[in-house]
Design goal:
Layout: H1 6-11, H2 43-46, H3 57-78, H4 90-106, H5 110-126, H6 131-138, H7 141-150, E1 163-166, E2 172-174, H8 175-201, H9 204-213, H10 218-247, H11 255-286, H12 303-325
Antiparallel strand pairs: 1-2
Length: 330
């Protein structure tokens, strides 16, 4: 150790058993390095426990933002697949799916609601969307949340009727309550299914242009267009802020420090959004934007679109007949 300076020799002592010395061989020869690793850089590994590790808030935020952006891009890509709904004229598709959505809200019998659900399933399969991916987007949160809300309506406290299952305190789950809950959950599922079908099979620009063709107010369409694009700009900004923070951080942050950063990031994001909104609006005006949403493709109603419109009309007529003829039961 005579080749090393006195302080370096002290730091390079391998007898402390911490593994802090770097590059020190067993003989302590001239090739050894006397610089030791600071304790704060080793704090992460020494504090680790064999149990389940809790993910930092920054990592959760970054993964959440990336998931949102990826899901939205995946939805836009689904509109380019060669399925049934993707081949339709956006105007015809919009009118047909809105009519089916309105029917799912108006019908009351369970058989008619099941028929509409079968129509939605048929469109999902023929559009090549994938049942699993569609279920994760449409049938996980909203229908299950609705089911949780209507659970009290199945009891005799809310809906009297024939008892199917007796509970404590003289209460019971009634057949009428189950029928009411089933109708509500199935109605919500049908409406969400037709809405997600429209969103997943139609590019956003074409959907907005179709709304304008149907005489939806220009201001409403403009707000939708700007909001949709602006959300992704803000998402990318948040992702950049979190990535920059992580790249400048050594070791593990405490939950309090993570929360402090998130609070500061919210304020910074608000300031960025104010300035960015002015820049985006100025850039749009400089490029000739007049408030009218236009599609690059030229739309023509073909025989295929007429055939699909006729099919939807027949399906609606069948659902209406089923609604009027079903008697009793649910």
């Amino acid at each position: 150790m005579s080749d090393l300076p006195p302080r370096a020799a002290e730091n390079a002592d391998p007898s402390d058993g911490t593994g802090a010395a770097v590059g020190t061989d067993s003989a302590g020869g001239p090739g050894s390095v006397g610089a030791s690793v600071p304790a704060w850089m080793l704090g992460g590994s020494s504090a680790s426990s064999p149990g389940r590790q809790r993910r930092p808030v920054l990592e959760k935020l970054l993964n959440g933002v990336a998931h949102v952006v990826e899901s939205a891009m995946d939805a836009d890509g689904a509109g380019e697949h060669g399925g049934l709904l993707q081949r339709l004229d956006p105007r015809v598709k919009l009118v047909g799916l809105l009519a089916l959505l309105l029917a799912s809200v108006l019908v009351d019998h369970l058989a008619a609601l099941l028929a509409l659900f079968a129509v939605a399933l048929t469109f999902i399969v023929l559009s090549r969307l994938g049942l699993r991916r569609f279920a994760l987007r449409a049938w996980v949160f909203v229908p299950l949340f609705t089911l949780a809300i209507v659970v009290p309506a199945t009891t005799s406290w809310v809906t009297p009727g024939h008892a199917v299952l007796h509970l404590w305190g003289g209460a019971a789950i009634t057949a009428t309550g189950l029928a009411t809950a089933a109708r509500l959950v199935l109605r919500v599922t049908d409406a969400v299914s037709f809405s997600v079908l429209l969103a997943m099979t139609t590019p956003w620009s074409e959907l907005l242009a179709a709304l304008r063709v149907l005489r939806v107010p220009r201001t409403f369409v403009f707000v939708l267009a700007v909001s949709y694009r602006y959300v992704f700009v803000l998402m990318r900004l948040v992702q950049g802020m979190v990535t920059a923070r992580r790249s400048r951080t050594v070791g593990r942050l405490t939950p309090r420090e993570d929360r402090r950063f998130v609070a500061a990031a919210v304020g910074t994001l608000f300031g960025h959004s104010q300035a960015l909104s002015e820049q985006v609006h100025t850039a749009m005006l400089a490029r000739g934007f007049t408030g009218e949403v236009r599609a690059l493709s030229v739309w023509r109603v073909r025989s295929f679109d007429y055939a699909w419109a006729a099919t939807v009309t027949l399906a609606l007529a069948a659902v209406a007949v089923l609604e009027l003829t079903v008697k009793g039961g649910f």
